[in-house]
Amino acid sequence: MAAPETSTAAVPTLYTNNTLRNAFGGVLSFFILLLIGVMAFSIRLFSVIKYESVIHEFDPYFNYRVTQFLAKNGIYEFWNWFDDRTWYPLGRVIGGTVYPGLTLTAGTIWWLLNSLNIPLSVETVCVFTAPIFSAFASWATYLLTKEVKGTGAGLTAAALLAMVPSYISRSVAGSYDNEAVAIFALIFTFYLYIKTLNTGSLFYATLNSISYFYMVCSWGGYTFIINLIPMHVLLCIVTGRFSSRLYIAYAPLVVLGTLLAALVPVVGFNAVMTSEHFASFLVFIIIHVVAFVYYIKGILSPKMFKVAVTLVVSVGLAVCCAVIAVLIALVASSPTKGWSGRSLSLLDPTYASKYIPIIASVSEHQPPTWPSYFMDINVLAFLVPAGIIACFLPLSDASSFVVLYIATSVYFSGVMVRLMLVLAPAACITSGIALSQAFDVFTGSIKFQLSGASSNTEVDAAETSSSTAESQTDAVKTEKPEETAKNRPSRKSKKKEREHGEKPSTKAKAEKKRLLALPLESSVISLLLLVLLGAFYVVHCVWAAAEAYSAPSIVLTSRSHDGLHVFDDFREAYAWLRHNTDVDDKVASWWDYGYQTTAMANRTVIVDNNTWNNTHIATVGTAMSSPERAAWEIFHSLDVKYVLVVFGGLVGYPSDDINKFLWMVRIGGGVFPHIKEPDYLRDGQYRIDSQATPTMLNCLMYKLSYYRFVETDGKGFDRVRQTEIGKKYFKLTHFEEAFTTHHWMVRIYKLKPPKNRIRGKTKKSKSKTSSTTSSPKRSGTKKKNPWQ
Amino acid sequence: MEAPIRAREALGFILFSLLFSICRSSSLNHLLISNAERRIDLSSHIVKVYLTLKVENAGSTPTSEVFLSFPPTQVDHLATVEALVTKGKRKKTTLVRLDVKPTELPDAPNDAKYFAIYLENPLKSGESTTLEVLYLLTHSQEPFPAEIAQSESQLVYYRDSALILSPYHIKQQTTFIKTPSTKVESFTRVEPSNRAGTEIKYGPYEDHPPYSFSPILIHFENNSPFAVVEELVREVEISHWGNLQVTEQYTLVHAGARHKGVFSRVDFQSRPTLNGASSLRYLLARLPPRVHSVYYRDEIGNISSSHLRTDSRKSELEIEPRYPLFGGWKATFVIGYGLPLQDFLFETSDDRRYLNFTFGCPLLETVVDKLTIKVVLPEGSKDPSAVVPFPVEQHLETKYSYLDVVGRTVVVMEKKNLVPTHNSHFQVYYTFKPIFMLAEPLMLASAFFLFFVACVAYLHIDLSIRK
């Protein structure tokens, strides 16, 4: 291994060697970063390769539609866009209620490409935005971790982030959602904060505010930043780490950042009025007080200072108490204590399930299970503790930030499965630090042991010519013995050495390091185990990217003995609606399908995935859980022409409307109390077989789902619920089947027009006449219609 | 039913004998048709009429024009008229295509429209020749009832004349009408006429004067799907790097009887022949051989229900729309494919290039209401000119594609009312210097070069204000 040549030849050219090596290392890490970017991009293309270049899931369809509008009508129209295709008859002001970051980003990319005469469609740009930004995010991770623990840790963290499954799940090609760009913005903002903290440069502080602005534009999760950074600042102050650098890192961010954040229409005055932001202002005051105290301390003698402190503290405490009391009174006067529902459910995990079923009903707002941690961050879960320990050796401003970041994000991810996404970068950073430190220790030990065995005397001789640890260079071969002497488990010093190039090391230091070195065998084995761990992680990530997270959810596939079977029913139904219904027809469905219906079918919907109006959603929920006639009246009063239900019973598609039905009942019952959940449950059990309650078997959702279902196999066997349905033969009186897709996954019904009232037939009015309210027998119906 | 038809028929006779007296002095009269046979094929929604005319010159002067006349209602739906003449004797007969052009005659009765067939050799006095005429009518079968439910079959009306409308005296004529099935609800009787199986025979009728007309109405079952492409835009993009990219955007509609009421999937799946007999389930597109990278999608993504079969002579793409099309239902989709350039691009002797490609729609048995073909020539090509075997509207456009600076010339051709017989070849000639092929690679290379130069410059120039 060690070349036989003596090291004396290397000494005269040492300086040039070093710069060369540094340059080479720079180029190498540049290329590694480039490859990491390529990997981050390409690992997310499984969805395009396995399926097609298509927008995924639900929310991305809305973002896609907004981007199309932006590309077509320009930015000014976009800000003023009132969308009348949704929330009929209320509509929605899109420009003022969306986080525009993602849309503007993709719109800008599209505009740029088109002005260069690269005619990519808006859809293509939208599909590939997320992979591109995950490459950026991994580079931002590199920068952040480099600021914390040096280049090696940075590269490792970047590589880990590039393929962390949790992030992949949100940023595969086609997953055109806010998180796609927001994670990049989040990490980059943190990087700039750390960078400012390390350098104290106002330039970076300004950049930090701009980056924070981009984050505010992109995602509601920006409140995480504006709470985490103040927490860190507070931590620094409390632990006595206050410095002017900290002040520069924080004060401009609050002032500029808040001003910029208020420019975003969806945030507006919330940036100063809601409780999510109060922490930052409080800390802003505190940091000024502290800065002032330090300043006073500087100009006063210690004795004078003590006097001043007692004076100020006594007066200041009184003032503070008064201010805080006023604030608390103000905040407490609002019903939600100034917090938005989602934020509150973060602070109190039981809040949503108690008060807001609509937030609780979303699957991504549920708390995660333990396996999902393993699925989403895999081996990182084990490396994180090691990384935290590494952050404490020694604890710097930057590493304390990382510790704080991981601690808070672990808590948040435990509350909402969606926030696993915020945890992923933190986990990658700490694991990157842990892995890189471990590698440093083990490779250092191996080198030390090898060199110690081969040329024990040479170590001392070569100590004067220290060199950095770029073992990949050509020059390394000749200098191996000397190098190993330097390349030991030095933790913080290593980084400094790299920065300063050479540093004479003393004999005593070498002795100390010799003691720190691990035995050769154990180092080699540990190294192998680490590599194995990494390999396991890579295999898992590739598997997760390819199998678990690439399905676009609007196209389903199943593999059977006779090949791949494609279930493209959703688009079949949307295409049918798009081409064969009137442009102004209103389509009612459960809110999950609202975005897709407006984007793919271009039809007006009653409710959609932007769940801003609980009452409206409850109305649709009530209609779905009412008997046919009451439902018809609700829908008719909303001008609905078609009702769309998703039914998986024929092919065994589990996330269909029957399985979501209890949420409709709960949300509907939350506003219209005549809908009671126990009416739909038999002994607390939700069932649709012959044991089901009559209310269940007569509700609209049941009828629309199972209409003529029994004729398919003669028994009406539901493959999702694994049971025969309770009521098999029934007729629809107020609805007619308009379209059912090939695998029955989407069924569209048309509301029959109201029948003419025929004089003299009022006896039969209950079954014949429909919408008129004059019939006296109406009151006899069990369920009272909320629209009376 | 019978009575009004008879009355109308009688009226027709009177009308046309009146017209005949007006036209008596016309110069057309020296020709006469000694025998005419007409076969009308109603089996699909495109009406194919094969007309065999034995034309005799009874006048004294030779003539080279034979006129066909059509009632104005038919002219609007007339997609194409072709005429062939049999040449040679006995065994060595060959068919020669003749020129057919729409013309005007000064004394056309009742707005009748004319097509002139130009004979190769003038027909001398006393001579006779046999012409084979084929014309296709689109949108000529009117669904009645206009709206049907899913389980009903589609019934249509076809209107025509029992007698061939002609400016000449016809000595003897027979008309055979082929219906798609034996199910014929009614047909107008003009004796002698009878029906056997899927065929209705009118005639033979003897000695009818010019412009004789006898309206008939046939009401029959036609369950063949009425596939009509309302608008088709075909874009053919030439890349001199060896590829011809074709993109076709379809707006398909089922133009048969409108679907009424419920669409029941369970009925459609369990008894497809009874329920939804007239629905349009799949289409067959005949693509050129050696086709590659075929895609079939619409505005919301890929449509997975298609099959491509290729062999050395042709490629067949079987496509299913996302949902079966019932009467009045629409669907839009895009078919795109690449073709090797050497199969379609040739050089002329005077250094010009020409693209030789098929006009028309590759879907079989489909009517295209409006077709736009855009031939996108490579950037830098000049003097484009198109040669199309039938009249089309033409104009030029400019398109900007990948990294174009001056834009690509686009030859746009538009035609209305197309049927599959329009799938003949057309040529677009242009001149192109191969050096233009390198323009974009050179542009990219220089852009990168400048970028690196800028980087190098930035690294070597000290930009700081303070020294």
UniProtKB/TrEMBL annotation, chain A:
<feature type="region of interest" description="Disordered">
    <location>
        <begin position="459"/>
        <end position="508"/>
    </location>
</feature>
<feature type="transmembrane region" description="Helical">
    <location>
        <begin position="23"/>
        <end position="43"/>
    </location>
</feature>
<feature type="compositionally biased region" description="Basic and acidic residues">
    <location>
        <begin position="476"/>
        <end position="486"/>
    </location>
</feature>
<keyword id="KW-0464">Manganese</keyword>
<comment type="subunit">
    <text>Component of the oligosaccharyltransferase (OST) complex.</text>
</comment>
<feature type="transmembrane region" description="Helical">
    <location>
        <begin position="180"/>
        <end position="206"/>
    </location>
</feature>
<feature type="compositionally biased region" description="Low complexity">
    <location>
        <begin position="768"/>
        <end position="778"/>
    </location>
</feature>
<keyword id="KW-0812">Transmembrane</keyword>
<feature type="compositionally biased region" description="Basic and acidic residues">
    <location>
        <begin position="496"/>
        <end position="508"/>
    </location>
</feature>
<feature type="region of interest" description="Disordered">
    <location>
        <begin position="755"/>
        <end position="788"/>
    </location>
</feature>
<feature type="transmembrane region" description="Helical">
    <location>
        <begin position="93"/>
        <end position="113"/>
    </location>
</feature>
<feature type="transmembrane region" description="Helical">
    <location>
        <begin position="125"/>
        <end position="144"/>
    </location>
</feature>
<comment type="similarity">
    <text>Belongs to the STT3 family.</text>
</comment>
<dbReference type="InterPro" id="IPR048999">
    <property type="entry name" value="STT3-PglB_core"/>
</dbReference>
<dbReference type="Pfam" id="PF21436">
    <property type="entry name" value="STT3-PglB_core"/>
</dbReference>
<feature type="transmembrane region" description="Helical">
    <location>
        <begin position="247"/>
        <end position="272"/>
    </location>
</feature>
<feature type="transmembrane region" description="Helical">
    <location>
        <begin position="379"/>
        <end position="407"/>
    </location>
</feature>
<keyword id="KW-0256">Endoplasmic reticulum</keyword>
<dbReference type="InterPro" id="IPR048307">
    <property type="entry name" value="STT3_N"/>
</dbReference>
<dbReference type="GO" id="GO:0004579">
    <property type="term" value="F:dolichyl-diphosphooligosaccharide-protein glycotransferase activity"/>
</dbReference>
<feature type="transmembrane region" description="Helical">
    <location>
        <begin position="212"/>
        <end position="235"/>
    </location>
</feature>
<keyword id="KW-0460">Magnesium</keyword>
From TrEMBL, chain B:
<comment type="function">
    <text>Subunit of the oligosaccharyl transferase (OST) complex that catalyzes the initial transfer of a defined glycan (Glc(3)Man(9)GlcNAc(2) in eukaryotes) from the lipid carrier dolichol-pyrophosphate to an asparagine residue within an Asn-X-Ser/Thr consensus motif in nascent polypeptide chains, the first step in protein N-glycosylation. N-glycosylation occurs cotranslationally and the complex associates with the Sec61 complex at the channel-forming translocon complex that mediates protein translocation across the endoplasmic reticulum (ER). All subunits are required for a maximal enzyme activity.</text>
</comment>
<keyword id="KW-0472">Membrane</keyword>
<dbReference type="GO" id="GO:0018279">
    <property type="term" value="P:protein N-linked glycosylation via asparagine"/>
</dbReference>
<keyword id="KW-0256">Endoplasmic reticulum</keyword>
<feature type="signal peptide">
    <location>
        <begin position="1"/>
        <end position="25"/>
    </location>
</feature>
<comment type="similarity">
    <text>Belongs to the OST1 family.</text>
</comment>
<keyword id="KW-0732">Signal</keyword>
<dbReference type="Pfam" id="PF04597">
    <property type="entry name" value="Ribophorin_I"/>
</dbReference>
<comment type="pathway">
    <text>Protein modification; protein glycosylation.</text>
</comment>
<feature type="transmembrane region" description="Helical">
    <location>
        <begin position="442"/>
        <end position="461"/>
    </location>
</feature>
<keyword id="KW-1133">Transmembrane helix</keyword>
<keyword id="KW-0812">Transmembrane</keyword>
<dbReference type="InterPro" id="IPR007676">
    <property type="entry name" value="Ribophorin_I"/>
</dbReference>
<dbReference type="GO" id="GO:0008250">
    <property type="term" value="C:oligosaccharyltransferase complex"/>
</dbReference>
<comment type="subunit">
    <text>Component of the oligosaccharyltransferase (OST) complex.</text>
</comment>
<protein>
    <recommendedName>
        <fullName>Dolichyl-diphosphooligosaccharide--protein glycosyltransferase subunit 1</fullName>
    </recommendedName>
</protein>
